[in-house]
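Supplementary Note 2. Why include the ligand at all?

Several targets in our set were suspected to adopt different conformations when bound, so apo predictions alone were not considered sufficient. For every target with a known small-molecule partner we therefore ran a joint prediction. The input for fe (ii) ion is given below.
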Amino acid sequence: MMTVTSMALSVSHLTPHIGTRIDSDGETLLSGRHAQEIRALLETRSVLVFPEIGFDDEQQIAFTRSLGALAYDYNGVPMVNGEQQAIFKVSLDEKVSPTARSLKNSLLWHLDGTTHDVPILASVLTARHLAPAGGETEWCSTYAAYEALPDEDKRALEGLRAVHSNLQLQRNINPELSYADFRRARGGPSKSQPLVWTHRNGRKSLVVGATAAYVEGMPHDDSLELLVRLRDWATQPQFVYRHEWKIGDMVIWDNTGTLHRALPYAPDSGRLMHRSMLAGEEPFA
Ligand SMILES: [Fe+2]
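The joint prediction is reproduced in token form.
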């Protein structure tokens, strides 16, 4: 593991393609002095880990803000007492989180915001309570996965688009929806996105995962086969970083160049993550 110390930031890469550990102190991180460097690392390394930094909500919000604009009320984050919340409590326990049921999708590889024009740029998670078993988080680099595709696949993907939908998410949770629930889910958001996202920085990433329902203009099974093949390709071990949480760990990831998922854990295990988000800055293209 190569460690490079630049002023107060000590940076170590966790795998060749994805994941970098940053050892610093809370005061230095909150000063904003390294914001540019952190943003640059976020883009090139996709996942940044701040081990046991132990931020409270206020500090987490301040840190998030130091890197860009906070995203509020994204993907149905509920209001509390009529106020938008910068911190969302991620829990599979319905007693803790009103959206616990839909979080079952968090166990499937996905990126956030595929039914929006502009997805969130990044999410920040801090670990408050851990499950005794399971609950690790995994990310894969969809930049590295695209880059490693054979040229003929890259050519074949040019111009292809997939529809991402709320209906697909609801069917992931319950493949046998009642007709009434099906109609309700179908009324939810749905959007066509390119399978390959050409970012403003010139890099390309794959846009696949559990929100993708079908590839436009393809027979049903061929469309599914392509989505499964690309998801399988993108989530190969060499593109993945798995984080085993300790209380107080904070991780930020670039939502636009990754897929993520949590590994299974018991809903009543007490596992609790506090999430804040950076508003998107770039539409899918
Ligand atoms: Fe997510």
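The first helix runs from residue 26 to 30. The first strand starts at residue 3 and ends at 6. Comparable summaries for the other entries are listed in the accompanying table.
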